[in-house]
Design brief:
Blueprint (H helix, E strand, L loop, with lengths): L11 H8 L1 H8 L2 H8 L4 H24 L17 H12 L11 H13 L4 H30 L17 H13 L8 H26 L5
Length: 222
């Protein structure tokens, strides 16, 4: 390439991905998740993960509802992504239809949910950062995890609906459009460094939650 030839710009979506690759890899290789996907645990472990995720997504989706009309965050709020109904269905499969049976004490999940409720309502960039970390992960690796869990733990009919997106028939196209919206954020005044810091925070809080599950379920396999 000559010195006068223009270099292609790196979009914000690619910058986020590059800056947080290490966070993603640590979460993906966490001991609990590795054991779960290897079939070394049981459906109680799947249910315990679902219970924690319900706390997190209840907070995220509640904040999203309040930001629907926001000029930045509102472009990302989409009921087709919502995971709370699916998590409730999965927990009903595992623990019955009494919601009190779904609740678990989880300081890590509680801290995660509390952060979403305090940091995101007044900061659309922070909301989108957490929205991106959770939902784009669900549409990518999460769908693959779901396929493994269904096969490994016999959840073909129920129990893994969290990983299904019936209202998104083309996840690849959806993710491409989502990344286009991410690329437009800097032009809307979103601070890139602050956004990426929130993505790091999201990964760290998820890692704490998964670590909590590892401390509980990996004792017998140590």
């Amino acid at each position: 390439m000559s010195v006068t030839e223009a270099r292609p710009e790196v979009g914000f979506a690619a910058l986020i991905r590059s800056a947080t690759t290490g966070d993603h890899d640590r979460n993906e290789s966490a001991g609990f998740m590795s054991a779960l996907m290897a079939g070394d645990l049981d459906t109680d472990a799947v249910a315990a993960l679902s219970a924690r995720l319900l706390m997190v997504y209840s907070a995220l989706e509640s904040v999203g509802e309040a930001l629907t009309l926001d000029g930045v965050a509102g472009e990302f709020v989409d009921p087709a992504l919502y995971r709370v109904p699916a998590l409730k269905d999965d927990l009903t499969t595992f623990r019955g239809d009494d919601p009190s049976a779904w609740v678990e004490e989880s300081p890590a999940a509680r801290a995660y949910a509390d952060h979403l409720r305090t940091a995101c309502p007044g900061d659309p960039g922070a909301f989108v950062a957490h929205h991106y970390t959770r939902y784009l992960g669900d549409l990518s690796g999460g769908r693959a995890i779901g396929a493994i869990l269904r096969r490994t733990y016999g959840l073909e009919q129920a129990g893994a609906t969290f990983y299904e997106f019936a209202q998104i028939p083309d996840p690849v196209a959806y993710k491409r459009d989502y990344r286009d919206r991410l690329d437009a954020l800097p032009s809307k005044g979103i601070d890139q460094a602050a956004f990426i810091a929130q993505v790091h925070q999201a990964y760290a809080m998820n890692e704490a939650m998964i670590g909590e599950l590892g401390a509980r379920f990996l004792k017998s396999t140590a």
